[in-house]
Amino acid sequence: DTLYDRADYVTWVAKREARGRALVFSQEHASQLGQVRRMEHALHCADLDAEIHILFQPQFDVAMNRTTGYEVLARWRSPIIGDVSPVDFIPMAERLDMINKITQTVVRKALAVSAKLPKSIRLSVNLSANDLASTTAVAAIVAQVHKAGTPCRVDFEITETAVMRDFEQASQGLVALLALGSRIALDDFGTGHSSLTHVQKLPLDRIKIDRSFVKEVTIDPTSRAIIKTTIELCRNLGISCVFEGIETEQQLDALLELGGTVMQGYLFGRPMSETAMLEQVARERKGWQDRRDVIFGTAG
Ligand code: C2E
Ligand code: MG
Ligand code: MG
After folding, report:
1. Does the model's pTM come out above 0.90?
2. Could you give the C-alpha distances from 292 to 61, 247, 285, 295, in angstroms and in order?
């Protein structure tokens, strides 16, 4: 059993890190594998409702000069192993067939928060490929939204791997989500297996350009050209275009020059707690109320 377990693990590492080469299972792999198995065990036994919480990262619309929504990002705090990044626990949950349950938890928590927000602010929840691939998982999401009451102000982000396995199934799932009044964003566009067929055939409301392009926008003319073309593509299709991972004002200026409007990244705000997010929303609303008082002459 140990031999198979180790062979399986190092094959997985080799596929990721050493394509076309052989890897020998080392002491380091042994300790990584031990760590992975401990995490899997902890996730398997986790009380998801208590251990999974959500953070919110602002999406700022430069043209409207306000925050129009927040991306919902899952966090896992295990009492046994501490904080685990979604980069680690989401793929693990997919392997352990637990992702649908985690999505349920995230959606339920997001719906509860959205009820406290002004109507102009939307929340955007990430879906895994395994969610869209399962009719029961989509039905469970739909049921939760119905239970929370309409109109729904929760949107969904999907990646292209979600639609590659079974396009028909995924499309049906998306149609069910659209019927809730949710919008669909294509996440991490430009990485992995981006295809114009997906953009053509999926009922998308927005495309999120991956942060690897944003990172290069100030230095690489090719990235700039790709961004410019994608903005143009979105405009022609009548969908919006969101930029991820903006960290510097230089990057922001470069994106503005190319015609970008909706921005997300550390420059605008790190993922924050519900309390911090609600405070930010209240501050922005107060700013607007003050301006309104000036415009309509009700100030002072
Ligand atoms: P994503 O959906 O592309 O989310 C954006 C990630 O980029 C987040 O990492 C966010 O914190 C990070 N980020 C945002 N702005 C910046 C920036 O300016 N600079 C840098 N360096 N990073 C930035 P996070 O929260 O660690 O999430 C990583 C990934 O995990 C997400 O990528 C998403 O694929 C997945 N994920 C997170 N929450 C969920 C969830 O509830 N369900 C599913 N299925 N996946 C999730
Ligand atoms: Mg996302
Ligand atoms: Mg992304």
Report:
1. yes
2. 19, 31, 10, 5
Cβ(190) to ligand 1 under 6 A?
Answer: no
Cα–Cα dist 20/125, whole Å: 36
How far does residue 196's CA lie from ligand 3's centre (Å)? 18
| Cα 125 to ligand 2 centroid, rounded to whole Å | 7
User: What does the pLDDT look like over 13-42, one tens digit per residue?
Assistant: 998 888 888 899 999 999 999 999 999 999
Q: Pull the structure tokens for residue 237.
A: 């299709």
Tell me how far apart the alpha carbons of residues 142 and 107 are, in angstroms, rounded to a whole number: 10
Triad 57, 144, 161: Cα angle to 5°: 60
108: buried, middle or exposed (CB in 10 Å: 19+, 13-18, 0-12)? middle
Phi, psi angle pair for 252, to nearest 5°: -60, -45
Q: Ligand 1 pocket check: which of 51, 90, 267 to mutate, most ligand atoms within 8 Å of Cβ? A: 90
Residue type, 73: L
Query: Contact 260/238 with Cβ under 8 angstroms?
Result: no
* Residues 229, 263: Cα–Cα separation, whole Å: 17
For residues 69 and 155, the answer to whether their CB atoms sit within 8 Å is yes
- Tell me: the pLDDT tens digits for 41-87? 999 999 999 999 999 999 999 999 999 999 999 999 999 999 999 99
Say if CB 56 and CB 123 are below 8 A apart: yes
Which positions are annotated as active-site residues? 244
Task: Show the tokens assigned to 29.
Answer: 């792999």
